[in-house]
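Hi Q.,

Before the meeting this afternoon, I wanted you to have the nicotinamide-adenine-dinucleotide prediction in hand. No need to reply - just skim if you have a minute. The sequence and ligand are here:
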Amino acid sequence: MKELSRRKFAKTLSKGVGATTLMANVPLACAMSGSNQKKKLGVALVGLGGYSTYQLAPALMDTEHCYLAGIVTGTPAKAKTWANRYNIPEGNIFNYENFDTIKENREIDVVYVVLPNSMHAEFSIRAAKAGKHVICEKPMAMDVRECDEIIKACKDAGVKLGMGYRLHSEPYTQEVKRFVREKTFGEVLYVSADAAYRSTSNPNQWRLDRKLSGGGALVNMGVYAIQSAIYGTGQNPISVQAQEYSTRPEYFKDTDETITAQFEFPSGAVANIMTSHNVIANRLYATCENGWFELDPASTYIPLAGRTSRGELDFKQESQQKLQMDDFAKHILYDAPNLAPGEMGKRDMMIVEAIYKSIQEGGKKQSLGFEPGFGFGG
Ligand code: NAD
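Predicted structure with the ligand bound:
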């Protein structure tokens, strides 16, 4: 990840968002009044790959409202290492086969599914059936049907469902959402959003295997570009048309390499997104009636950076995953807003499917019939 020097303090912009807005309306005392309410929720990570190892577990050492209580892994050696490193008791360690017995475990409140995409639906549904709240990584599932199954399982079980969309808890992104909401620069007219990296390692990795990933760059990085277009305009798109480009077919045998897509929004705003596993780009730029704003990078872990036509943005850098998991825990404990509900993951998957359909039909425009605000978080 690119190392960036700390940004100069914003000269003219107020920093009126972030954590302060989140807790302002939370009825803390009343939420904690039940005698069996716990102050810190126990989280079990399912899948101990790169993201769990280097981002989520370290972040769970710093979270205020939840902690790493358990692990679910198919690799006994990993179970041992993690148990030692994080002091996880034997009874809080599960494998994929005995996972359902997590139901009996009272220390684990939340199951966080961090597996290859093809396993998100199965483990989210099993977690819900075990009575655990669920965080599901992006992309939510392989298709919209699976998203519906996850949402239904969580509703039926009466558990909360959140997406692993960490940026909604991140202060630069929250500031962009505030610009849009408060029309700081007037109406947004155009958004350009890129989310891409260059993949050159192991051609047999699951991300390049459609059976395990559900798609290529679009389902991996593309969801960030889709998200940027939506929170950069504050609306769900009414149409999309898309194009696919392939320059290294020998490497990208099974999944998409580079995709561009254009959205129209109800206000008349338009957006262009680019996602790729072949080029390096990470940016959100919006031009408005009275100025512009930009995040670059816009979706890496930390640090993000941003500027506007009125000056630089500068926010405290904290682990996005820490903020995200604490926000979800506050949603469960105190009824704070769910910043990235399951419907948001489903909406993005509906857009992914429309993009693939447009490509199949030679770039034909696809209508998207979202209810206003569908999938928006609190
Ligand atoms: P990874 O390849 O590093 O880890 C995958 C884990 O799944 C490994 O522990 C592996 O042992 C396990 N696994 C179980 N069955 C497997 C199978 N059949 N094939 C391959 N692995 C299998 O992947 P990752 O980077 O940790 O990504 C996991 C999930 O997290 C993905 O859905 C990804 O999109 C998501 N993710 C999200 C972010 C984010 O910023 N929100 C960042 C990285 C990854």
